[in-house]
Design a protein that fits this description.
This protein has 418 residues and is α/β, with parallel strands linked by helices. The chain has ten helices and 18 strands. The N terminus and C terminus are likely disordered. The structure holds adenosine-3'-5'-diphosphate and magnesium ion. The site of adenosine-3'-5'-diphosphate has 9 residues, from helix 5 and strand 14. Decapping enzyme for NAD-capped RNAs: specifically hydrolyzes the nicotinamide adenine dinucleotide (NAD) cap from a subset of RNAs by removing the entire NAD moiety from the 5'-end of an NAD-capped RNA.
């Protein structure tokens, strides 16, 4: 048992090998950690029973892991006051802009902008509300001690998985991921790092305005219905969101995650979700080969990771000038991005991203063995370091709400009686 109660995340440390759980503890998934001797000897990586996880790119250059086509199992909406609805009322429809759009992204920043309160930490709450509302849709696996176990290994936000995918290439921002095992399912919820909090609280005015630009671009290109037009005179309210909930599998990891979707193809004959979804992005206009190279190496990595995960097939990019005017747009197909970056030297590789994520999830399964809503395994990573963890009981990190635990521990029969 790990006894390092409520350690500060900043003092996270490498666990001693004597403190290591046995390899076949947990749910018998030890076989999936089998290191190939090839990797161990040739690349000098730590054995896969290690208490830490390396993020070195070379270790993850294997065949692309099995990633099942993501299936949308539901969706939800958050309204202008951040209230949850178990439906698609906030879904918007993509309207293709003109060749020279000239969208002024600064318009409305001062007087038509309602910003979501970033001090409110929602953690996994909206996803958990969706799970409670849709329990019957999620197959239940028979289990001796609970009739309510979900048939998934991991529940999380898509954004947390995006961070994992890009970790082997990230040089600036670390992360903290809190993990709780409850009824056999591992819940992953991000904790804001001290550096991220400081960055957020001391954000320069220019950066605050530039954050608005992305949402303003959405307003110029999205309509509320399939037959209406965008209304750029309206208010931009970042409380509003439409989120898809998808189920998929990465090798032996069954995943259920949710991610915000900007809009969908407005053609009623478009394929079913998530294939009809469109991700909108803005980026600085590209004027030099160096800028093009940076766009491929850094921006396309983030865009690919974010949309590949939920199976969103295309990103529409608005290229903006220094004054926040969109001068052109371009569609990027996610399936074509790996081709596009092939000419860049020393560029990122999708297989490294997916294999790292897969190995991280295996590592989490192996470490987070105690099934209790009040226990948090806090996984911590800083650039140029390994992933480490610490364990916290009944601490500030506990994130599964009481209402969720109650809903998921009472049997469906007893629920009917209330
Ligand atoms: P852009 O990425 O087009 O600039 P998303 O594209 O993920 O749907 O996010 C919509 C917009 O939210 C972004 O548009 C950006 O304006 C803002 N945003 C999201 N994450 C951000 C971050 N980490 N830092 C700054 N702005 C962010
Ligand atoms: Mg977007």
């Amino acid at each position: 048992m790990h006894r390092n109660r409520s350690r500060s995340p900043m003092s996270s440390y490498h666990q001693q090998s004597s403190d290591r759980p046995k390899r076949d503890e947990g749910r018998g998934d030890g076989k999936f950690f089998r290191p190939t001797n090839h990797h161990r000897h040739q690349l000098g990586s730590a054995p896969l029973s290690s208490q830490v996880l390396s993020t070195r790119r070379e270790l993850y250059e294997r065949d692309f892991p099995l990633y099942k086509q993501p299936v949308e199992v539901g969706c939800f909406s958050l309204d202008s006051q951040r209230r949850f609805f178990n439906d698609s009322r906030q879904l918007r429809y993509y309207v293709e802009p003109d060749r020279c759009p000239n969208f002024d992204l600064r318009d409305g920043y001062k007087d038509r902008y309602v910003r979501r309160d970033e001090n409110v930490k929602e953690r996994l709450d909206h996803i958990l509300r969706w799970i409670v509302a849709n329990r019957s849709k999620l197959k239940s696996r028979a289990s001796a001690n609970s009739s309510c176990a979900l048939d998934v290994d991991f529940v999380t936000w898509r954004g947390h998985l995006t961070k994992l995918l890009t970790t082997p290439y990230e040089t600036r921002e670390g992360w903290l991921l809190a993990v709780t095992r409850f009824n056999g399912t591992l819940y992953i919820s991000e904790v804001e790092t001290e550096a991220a909090r400081q960055e957020r609280e001391n954000r320069a005015e220019r950066n605050k305005e530039m954050m608005y630009w992305g949402y303003k671009f959405e307003q110029y290109t999205c309509a509320d219905t399939a037959s209406s037009s965008p209304d750029p005179r309206g208010v931009v309210n970042t409380n509003e969101a439409f989120c898809t909930v998808v189920q998929t599998r990465l090798t032996d990891h069954q995943l259920l995650f949710s991610g915000e979707v900007d809009c969908r193809d407005r053609d009623p004959g478009a394929p079913p979700p998530p294939a009809c979804y469109v991700e909108l992005k803005t980026s600085a206009e590209i004027c030099t080969p160096k800028q093009r190279s940076n766009f491929h190496r850094f921006k396309l990595l983030k865009w690919w990771a974010q949309s590949f995960l939920p199976g969103v097939p295309r990103v529409v990019a608005g290229f903006k000038d220094h004054d926040g005017v969109v001068v052109s747009t371009e569609t990027f197909l996610i399936s074509k991005i790996s081709q596009l970056i092939k000419n860049e030297d020393n560029c990122w590789k999708p297989t490294v991203c997916m294999n790292f994520c897969c190995d991280f999830l295996s590592y989490v399964k192996r470490i987070a063995t105690e099934d209790s809503p009040s226990v948090v395994y806090l996984f911590s990573w800083e650039p140029r370091r390994e992933v480490t963890y610490s364990v916290h009981r009944d601490s500030q990190y506990t994130f599964l709400p009481r209402w969720y635990i109650q809903e998921m521990t009472s049997s469906p029969e007893s629920l009917h009686q209330h």
